[in-house]
Amino acid sequence: MRIFKPNRPLAFIHKALAASLIVAIGAALPISVPAQTRLPALGEGGDITVAEERQLGDMIVRDIYRDPSYIDDPTLAEYVQGIWDELLAAARKLGELTPEIDERFAWEVLLIRDRTVNAFALPGGYMGVQFGLIGVVTSRDELASVMAHETSHITQRHISRLITQQGQQTPLVIAAMVLGALAASRSPDATQALVLGGQALAVQNQLNFSRDMEREADRMGYTLMQPAGFAPQGFVSMFDKLQQANRLNDNGAWPYLRTHPLTTQRIADMQARLQSAGLSFFLPPPTTEHAMLSARARVLASPGVDALRQRVAEPKSPGFASLPLARRAAALYATALASSQLRDFEGARAGARQLADTVRADAAALRQAQLLAAEIELAAGDANSALQYLPAAHTKVPEKRPELLLRAQALLRSGRAADAAEVAETLQTWVATHPRDATAWQLLASAWQAQGQALRAIRAEAESFVAHYDYAAAVDRLQAAQNLARKGGPSVDYIEASIIDARLRAVQLLAKEQAAQR
């Protein structure tokens, strides 16, 4: 039986924020996760195992994947995941990751198209990062500081410890606590209706407990920064941002302040650590690439027409030419992307050309400008022009995911059978090593469909559902493929039909296990 099932489209907001509050207030389960699972009952008080924690995380992210606020933006995903990979490498080197956790956890970033400033740790090695956070940080170091903090929540297994701490709480009380904290981020009046009596006291007790964890996550996260290649000063400058937002009476745009209460002790501790290391409070200037991708997050987080028009107007303001390079590049990137969103493709192309000219001396920034130009051409319906901005396949340089997916989309739109065959070959290689890339599986399905290979196309669709833990939908697609194969005919590949039979049995078992957890 489910504890609570919020109505969409608010369902995702509840789930994502509830997940962030697992660390902040000790809630053992997000709102929509059922109390009746094969995980330890909350009243048992036993430690949750690594495998069970991963299982719980998978249950949560399955619903996140299905919500429209979740977005797989290959450009931003590559950037944020790249930062996390460096932090995880440092954690391994420092011994903060046990081999069991390292192997069993997912270590995946989930991007949330929301302009509020937030990030949250989830069970099983998942981290949520909202576009608002990427848009507000001024450097990779600041973003890395937040992610290092959340990483330490995961590596120190704070979620597991909090579930154990909740041994005397019933699932319904915990659900009410989470609902009350969620309501607080939207309306203080709603909190009074949801958190009453002893439940309110329980919330305060858990907040007190979590402050120790916050300090521990600060300390552990700080130690990751330099070994991962980031300036530790990013921690202090990010705290300054949070403190300033707190002083301005946060109006709901910074839920991170509520899930991670900022105290003078935490601020003083980070400043003292900086001084004891002999480091002055000097933050390296933002890279041009970061400024551009931060601008991308701001544009994608605010898709309203008025907001997009404001982005387009910025490069026309007086004094624009005298701004630092990173600021100009960010504004030009935002202009080009916003113009494309407004279907003004000539304006978008002009902005992209000016951006490329501006950042030509910076290889990382120029790559982002070319990716944006290809994206604009695809949106305008000119696949051939998009290909001109992307490297050719089978080059000596390993293909990166943004280029891979953009090139696949462009080739598929050409309508040529040879191009579809090239896409299928490239993506088959990719998914063999990245089996949880649902977007790649969907493109592979399109490539196989374009070649008339219906069975393979349906199986690829099923694998995209498997990648997002939607086993019921995957079973449905595999059964459809099985029925198609049984009809026979010259187009039926019986080897592929055997693969489908085997996959169906495997996914049915996964679906059965998933159902038993509900």
Low-confidence segments, given as residue ranges, are 1-46, 168-201
Oligomer: single chain
Topology order in helix (H) and strand (E) letters:
HHHHEEEHHHHHHHHHHHHHHHHHHHHH
Structural class: mainly alpha
Mean pLDDT: 81
Q: Biggest sheet: strands side by side, in what order?
A: 1-3-2
> Total strand count, please?
3
- Compute the gyration radius: what is it? 24 Å
Portion in beta strands: under 5%
Structure annotation, total helices: 25
The amount of helix comes to: 55-70%
End-to-end separation: 7 Å
Shape field: globular
Biggest sheet record: 3 strands, mixed
How would you characterize this protein structure?
There is one protein chain. The protein has helices spanning 10-25, 50-66, 74-93, 99-104, 131-136, 140-155, 158-165, 171-186, 188-194, 197-225, 233-247, 256-259, 264-276, 288-301, 305-313, 325-341, 345-358, 363-380, 383-388, 401-414, 417-433, 438-450, 454-467, 471-486, 494-517, and strands at residues 108-112, 119-122, 126-130. With 518 residues, it is mostly helical. The protein folds into three domains: 10-276, no CATH class; 288-388, no CATH class; 401-517, Serine Threonine Protein Phosphatase 5, Tetratricopeptide repeat (Alpha Horseshoe), CATH 1.25.40. A three-stranded mixed β-sheet has the order 1-3-2. A hairpin with a 3-residue loop joins strand 2 and strand 3. Helix 8 packs across helix 10 (197-225), helix 16 runs antiparallel to helix 17 and helix 21 packs antiparallel against helix 22. It starts with 9 loop residues before the first helix and ends with a helix. Mean pLDDT is 81; it is low at 1-46 and 168-201.
